[in-house]
UniProtKB/TrEMBL annotation:
This is Adenylosuccinate synthetase. HAMAP family: Adenylosucc_synth. Keywords: Cytoplasm, GTP-binding, Ligase, Magnesium, Metal-binding, Nucleotide-binding, Purine biosynthesis. GO terms for cellular component: cytoplasm. Gene3D superfamilies: Adenylosuccinate Synthetase, subunit A, domain 1, Adenylosuccinate Synthetase, subunit A, domain 3. It comes from Methanocella paludicola (strain DSM 17711 / JCM 13418 / NBRC 101707 / SANAE). Homodimer. Belongs to the adenylosuccinate synthetase family. GO terms for molecular function: adenylosuccinate synthase activity; GTP binding; magnesium ion binding. GTP binds at residues 12-18, 42-44, 255, 281-283, 321-323. Pfam families: Adenylsucc_synt. Binds 1 Mg(2+) ion per subunit. IMP binds at residues 13-16, 40-43, 124, 138, 176, 191, 253. The keyword Transmembrane helix does not apply.
Length: 337
């Protein structure tokens, strides 16, 4: 039995979906449970060569044998969930905790109409902040109160713990980056709750003593969508020169690009309690490594980059992504243990 949390180490968009999928294909979990805030973060994943952007369904949906659960700590937008379930055809595998709070139209309207948040902070306008505010005030609607969700309702914490008791594998996936944690991020330019591994475990109701691995996902060139401090940000001209242009899955906004941040990597690994790390975008360090699946075939400058990143973060880098395809990865987990 192995329970693994996959969490973003920078400001989001680190490629967590790909890492979740890879771990799922190799560890064969019976459950992939999602923690995090809600539909304000999107994950881009590939299945059978088709690109999907998901906001509610766990990105581990690509692994067909896993039950897909949404933990009690997650905000649910029933409209978004329904759309994704139909698109992905995964309704038979979905479970929504009956205690999830619901994003309603009024929350979205408030989010988009909030001058301070929409313009100053750069909120995604998906209603998460107002919905969490109502949750804190103990006046929120819960999943158990929504007719369209009744077919999915379950006790996610019970399912997860029962699976662990049976000796099955569990993956808990996060949906935001460490840098926008309400507690540890660049306040006030943050999301509406904590996004660290500890909170992800709480979101799905699995106690800390039952977590075996915490995989923090970093990006060789960190990115950030929206406003807020970004200490290693490069100029748009430099990003263009390097051929890096990215856009947010949810908002479509251009992502700000930065250089590797050793200080943030170490702090993130510390607070998340990382046991290992994954890094994506190594093909942007050196295009010659694109698609490489064996460590020995990596170029020397990429190997040096990874070695330095390991020293910076203080944890072994066991999953090295060399391109966007699911197969573009060097898996060193057996070598590093």
């Amino acid at each position: 039995m192995v329970s693994t949390i996959v969490v973003g180490g920078f400001f989001g968009d680190e490629g967590k979906g790909k890492i979740v999928a890879h771990i799922a294909y190799t560890e064969h979990p019976s459950i992939i449970a999602r923690g995090g805030v809600g539909p304000n973060a999107g994950h881009t994943v590939y299945k059978d060569g088709v690109k999907y952007g998901v906001r509610m369904v766990p990105s581990g949906f690509v692994y067909d044998k896993a039950r897909l659960l949404i933990g009690a700590g997650v905000l649910v937008d029933p409209v978004v969930l329904d759309r994704e379930v139909k698109l992905l055809g995964c309704g038979g595998r979905i479970g929504v905790d009956y205690r999830c709070s619901i994003i309603e139209e009024k929350h979205i309207a408030e989010d988009k109409g909030t001058e301070r948040l929409a313009k100053k902070i750069g909120t995604t306008g998906t209603g998460c902040g107002p919905a969490n505010k109502e949750r804190v005030m103990r006046s929120a609607k819960q999943a158990a109160d929504v007719e369209s969700l009744k077919k999915y309702l379950t006790d996610v914490s019970q399912e997860c713990n029962d699976a662990l008791d049976r000796g099955e594998n569990l993956i808990i996936e996060g949906s935001q980056g460490f840098g926008i944690s309400l507690y540890y991020g660049t306040y006030p330019f943050v999301t509406s709750k904590d996004t660290s591994a500890s909170s992800l475990a709480a979101d799905v109701g699995v106690g800390p003593t039952k977590i075996d691995e915490v995989v923090v996902v970093f990006k060789a060139f960190p990115t950030r969508v929206g406003e807020g401090p970004f200490e290693t940000e490069m100029t748009p001209e430099e990003a263009q020169k390097r051929g890096i242009a990215e856009f947010g899955t949810v908002t479509g906004r251009a992502r700000r690009i930065g250089y590797w941040d050793p200080k943030m990597a170490r702090y993130s690994a510390m607070i998340n309690g990382a046991t290992q790390a994954a890094i994506t975008g190594l093909d942007r360090i050196d295009p010659a490594v694109k698609g490489v699946q064996e460590y020995d075939k990596l170029t020397e400058n990429v190997k040096e980059f990874v070695k330095q990143a390991e020293k910076d973060a203080g944890v072994p880098f066991t999953l090295l992504s060399t391109g966007p395809d699911q197969k573009d990865i060097v898996d060193l987990r057996n070598h590093k243990k």
